[in-house]
Structures are given as structure tokens and as C-alpha cells.
Design brief:
The chain is α/β, with parallel strands linked by helices. Helix content is 48%, strand content 13%.
């Protein structure tokens, strides 16, 4: 038994609301969060979702573990035992849909701190961080490119969290050369993807190209930390990203 996209959207909203009622800050990220923030229907960006992705505060981790089991989600005991302080896995009891939980920080190809930003929106992580979590993926696939383009198309850039906050992007990428490097590569990929995607109107294509270009221009003028400048001298000769391994699904729910 699987969940439809609408059922997963409803369940993500239910979980965040139930967590909030229990005093727990639970926020969605990933492709489902991109869809949750999109108010406009568009057939190019509509798709099914394989799992849930959430982040929860480090200081609320213990309360969250009890909360998830009370909501009918079974923990992946071996994975959580080894990784529980940073990341946890749960499976919905009926559908077996996976819930991938990041604790405090998002860590994949790059680390993006989220702990202090969970109050910016009641449902998802802020748009700036949502964009960064998509743009930090070294091996960008079509779904990730679509999510990145959707964020650029349906959300304006600005100086507050109501929009894609350019100040936050500048702060994160100005402190971390590796993150800046991968995000820059993927913004160019998003521009190329939009240029070649026939399902976009010329106006939609221009919006995506324009907003991606705006972020790239922010990178030119943003303050760079001393560590950023030192790492910039080394450049791409040395690996600038974290190697990501797929989670072994066969370990789930083992006793």
C-alpha cells in the first residue's frame, strides 16, 4: 500500500501540526516541501513522492522519538542506533513509506545548519535553505532540477524569509566555498535545464533564468570569509563535497 502525492502532502501537514501541538518543531524539506510551498498548479512539476523528509531540533530529539512512534511510525532501530544524533529513519506502519529525519542540520553533499531557522515557517524550512538543500546535490537528477526550477519560478528573491532570502544564501555560501561551488554549478544547470524544457512558456523560462542569474550575481559581491578565500586558491583540484551513500533499506525495522 503506497500513498498518493495528495495523501503524502496531507500527512506531512498533519505531522507538522501534531508535532507543533506537542511542542516539537518539525519542518519538511525535500521535494515534498517544495510542493507544499507551491500554490500554483503546473503539470511539469507535479509528481509522486517516494518518502518524507523532515528536520527536527536537536534539543527535541528525545521527545520527537516518542512522538513518531505515537503517530504510528516504526523506527529503523539499527540505523537510528548508529546515526540517531544526526539522522533517523522511520516507516509509516501501514504504507511503509519512509520518513527521513535530519537532526538540527541537513548533511548530504554539504552541511546546511537549520537548528536556528526552524521558526521561520510553520510547515517547511525557509525558502533560502530549501533552495540550498536542492542546489547542494552534486549529482543533480531530473527531479532535483525540476524542484530547483520550481523554487526559482514560483518564489521571488528578496531580503526576508517570505521570499528566497538572498542574505541567507550569501551568508551560507560566503562562509563555505564548497557549498558555493556546488550551488553555482547547479544554478547554471538549472538555467540550462530551463532553456531546454519545452513545457515551460517563454515567460516562465525567463523568470527561472533571471532569478538564477540574480543569485549568481550575489555570489560575486557577497563577503567571503578568510577560510573561503584560502579554499578558493585550492579550487576544484581537491574534493569540495561529502561523499553520500544511499541508506540501506534492507536494515529497516530489524530487531
Amino acid at each position: 500500500m503506497t500513498m498518493t502525492s495528495q495523501e503524502m502532502l496531507a500527512e506531512a501537514r498533519r505531522l507538522t501540526a501534531e508535532a507543533e501541538a506537542a511542542g516539537i518543531q518539525l519542518r519538511a524539506l525535500g521535494g515534498l516541501a517544495v510542493r507544499m510551498r507551491r500554490e500554483v498548479a503546473h503539470p511539469l512539476f507535479d509528481r509522486n513522492f517516494a518518502d518524507f523528509d523532515f528536520v527536527v531540533s536537536k534539543k527535541q530529539r528525545r521527545a520527537f522519538e516518542s512522538f513518531m512512534q505515537a503517530q504510528g511510525y516504526l523506527p529503523d532501530k539499527p540505523f537510528n542506533l548508529l546515526n540517531g544524533a544526526e539522522r533517523q529513519l522511520y516507516y509509516e506502519g501501514k504504507s511503509q513509506v519512509k520518513a527521513d529525519i535530519f537532526i538540527g542540520d541537513f548533511v548530504m553533499c554539504h552541511k546546511i545548519p537549520l537548528e536556528a531557522r526552524l521558526s521561520a515557517d510553520p510547515l517547511t524550512i525557509p525558502l533560502a535553505e530549501l533552495l540550498l538543500t536542492k542546489a547542494q546535490i552534486l549529482e543533480l537528477n531530473r527531479k532535483d532540477a525540476l524542484d530547483l526550477c520550481a523554487l526559482l519560478l514560483f518564489h521571488e528573491t528578496g531580503e526576508t524569509d517570505a521570499d528566497i532570502n538572498l542574505q541567507v544564501i550569501a551568508q551560507r555560501c560566503g562562509a563555505d566555498w564548497g557549498l558555493y561551488k556546488t550551488v553555482s554549478i547547479n544554478l547554471e544547470r538549472a538555467r540550462q535545464f530551463a532553456q531546454n524544457e519545452s513545457a515551460l512558456t517563454p515567460q516562465e523560462r525567463d523568470v527561472i533564468l533571471g532569478r538564477a542569474g540574480e543569485i549568481l550575481r550575489v555570489f560575486e559581491s557577497m563577503p567571503k570569509s578568510p577560510a573561503w578565500q584560502i579554499r578558493d586558491r585550492v579550487g576544484a583540484r581537491v574534493k569540495w563535497y561529502i561523499e553520500v551513500e544511499e541508506v540501506d533499506r534492507d536494515s529497516r525495522l530489524a530487531d
